[in-house]
Amino acid sequence: MAVPGFTLGAFILLLLVSSVANYPNGKVTKSCRGMIPEHGHTPQSDPTCRISVSQMTFRPGDQIKVALSGPPFKGFLLEARDAENLSGPPIGSFTLIDSQVSQLLTCEDIQGSAVSHTSPSKKTEIKVYWNAPSSAPNHIKFLATVVEKYKIYWVKIPGPIISQPNVLPFTTPKATIASMPTLPPVSHLTKSFNASDCGNKKFCIRHPLNCDPEKELACVFLSFTRDAKSVMVEMRGPSKGYLSFAFSHDRWMGDDDAYVCILEDQTVHIQPSHLTGRSHPVMDSRDPLEDMAWRLADGVLQCSFRRNITLPGVKNRFDLNASYYIFLADGAADDGRIHKHSRQPLITYEKYNVTGYPENIGGSHSLLLLKVHGALMFVAWMTTVSIGVLIARFFKPVWSKALFGDAAWFQVHRMLMLTTSALTFIAFLLPFIYRGGWNWHAGYHPYLGCIVMILAVLQLLSAAFRPPLHDPRRQMFNWTHWSMGTAARIIAVAAMFLGMDLPGLNLPGPWKTYAMIGFVAWHVGTEIVLEVHTYRLSRKVEILDDDRIQILQSFTAAEAEGFPGGAVVARPPADAGEPGSRPGLGRSHMPRSGWAREPWPLSLRVRSLCSATGEATTEGGPHTTKKKKECLYIFSYRAKMAFYMLIVLTLRLS
């Protein structure tokens, strides 16, 4: 079964090792019986650490001091066993001396029957007390497993044997050290794998589809060739750390049968492993694998092995007569330690039976639903909402004519914002459809996405209850509407930056970030340019208004006192000005000397256009009002803002 809360991006090869050294907290209860770390490496044969005891004889109830010392080591596991049955359960219990560096474990349901480390910090000596039980055997032998680093460790280092008094002396067996696990032989491949039989004799998975592993270094190749009772597996691909594949019942991490080829010191180790839930992968025995071989050339790692189709009695190995999703992953490895895959694993589109009819298939590093989610969010919050904001902010004077009962700018703004909300809602549902629930492992991205969705809904609700233009609550609505919209845009952009790095999208390198920064910079720059442009034009109209007032006042005084040289100003007809204008402000017949000849047309044009907007002006009254500033847009915004809009629409929709 899948683990419901885990993303595909955390697929099987989170692959941080599972071992004594991989448990920095020392909770190595799994290794109690065999005392063997699950590293997949061969244990060292000559131990550098030693075990010492405070006395060589004991009685039931005695407390004996035991010390483990040697060169610096990171992890350890210490137990007491029956010297005549070293494969049996631990005997007695321990008491800690320093709980900062050691802790008690419960092995074989015996509390405190083993001691392990508490952290991966280096240590040179561990001291504890061993408590002899009332039913202790005649002879006790202390054993220790010590881990210096991931691939260097010693298993069941023998310690001294202590005995009860008045018993026959212990006879030392021929081999005091438990036999070390042996590894199957591994050979070297001499050439690249061949894909000519794919779809005929081999079941092949290739990425890119139909790539040639013999000619293309970037080709990722996995094949299965069936014979009577077994399957030959071939895997290759560019990697500096490891390659791996896994059989899975579903698209989620958990209960997966995985196989890893790990590069270490110019040698490739082939290792089966399994996962339980969201735990770290556990390296298993190589016994089920045969005919293991590998090759390393030109940065390309190749490995092959054979395994039986069915492995009855072998835990964690799947029956290959069934159908599974197949995963392919690669990543870094350091000193034999496998790290998280470097990109989203390649996953087949459906389940396949690799021992059935041979096929030639591909896979994908990203999922369609997640791609659609990202695309819809990008269109909504980098295109439609951006254009809608620009129209509402700068195009009111330009598109003020009525369209279906409302101003054209408002209709376009409303349409774009409704489109944004609809796209956001659809995109918001897609990850839940794909996941079947909440994703707890995608960082802050889903939380920010929920906030954006809530703000988008609140914006719609607030817009539905927008007060009339002259309502006292209109100003509060305007500020609330602007605040929620601005917050939603900022949070949406932050969510997109975080979402781009999630493995489900598999976007290319740093260019995704640069492209996103470019879109944001373009929109911010456009708003800044338009704001500066608006401010400069507002300043110009204020200067024009000041000049107009001064001219009007000057001519009012001139009419009362007469012009120099006895010239008399001829008043224009009463209808020469615009409706509502002061009589006598038509074009005058000015003398060649004295006053300038052309102030009147400019003043009249400004006054006439402002009067056309419905403004009632009075001589000497205020000259900087909202109505007068709107005259500015009539003068110049029609051409300039249309040009800006053309640029914005072209670049946004391209």
Unreliable residue runs: 1-21, 175-180, 563-644, 646-654
Number of domains: 4
Shape estimate: elongated
Query: What would the average pLDDT be, to the nearest integer?
Result: 78
The strand order across the widest sheet is: 10-18-19-13-12-11-23
CATH class annotation of the largest domain? Mainly Beta
Total helical segments: 7
Q: Judging by the overall fold, what is the CATH architecture of the largest domain?
A: Sandwich
| Percent strand | 15-25%
Tell me the structural class: alpha+beta
Radius of gyration: 41 Å
Estimated helix fraction: 25-40%
Biggest beta sheet summary: 7 strands, mixed
CATH topology of the largest domain: Immunoglobulin-like
Overview of the structural elements:
With 654 residues, this protein is α+β, with helices and mostly antiparallel strands. The protein has 4 domains: 8-12 and 186-361, Immunoglobulin-like (Sandwich); 43-163, Immunoglobulin-like; 368-507; 535-649, no CATH class. The protein contains 7 helices and 25 strands. It has helices spanning 368-394, 408-435, 445-464, 474-500, 511-561, 599-612, 626-653; strands at 50-53, 63-73, 75-82, 93-96, 102-107, 110-117, 123-131, 139-149, 152-163, 186-188, 202-207, 220-226, 230-238, 242-248, 257-264, 267-274, 282-283, 290-297, 300-308, 325-334, 337-341, 346-347, 360-361, 402-403, 406-407. It has a 7-stranded mixed β-sheet, with no helix packed on it. Strand 15 (257-264) and strand 16 (267-274) form a beta hairpin. The chain is elongated, with a radius of gyration of 41 Å. It is a multi-pass membrane protein. Keywords: Electron transport, Glycoprotein, Iron, Membrane, Signal, Transmembrane, Transmembrane helix, Transport. Residues 13-179 form the Reelin domain.
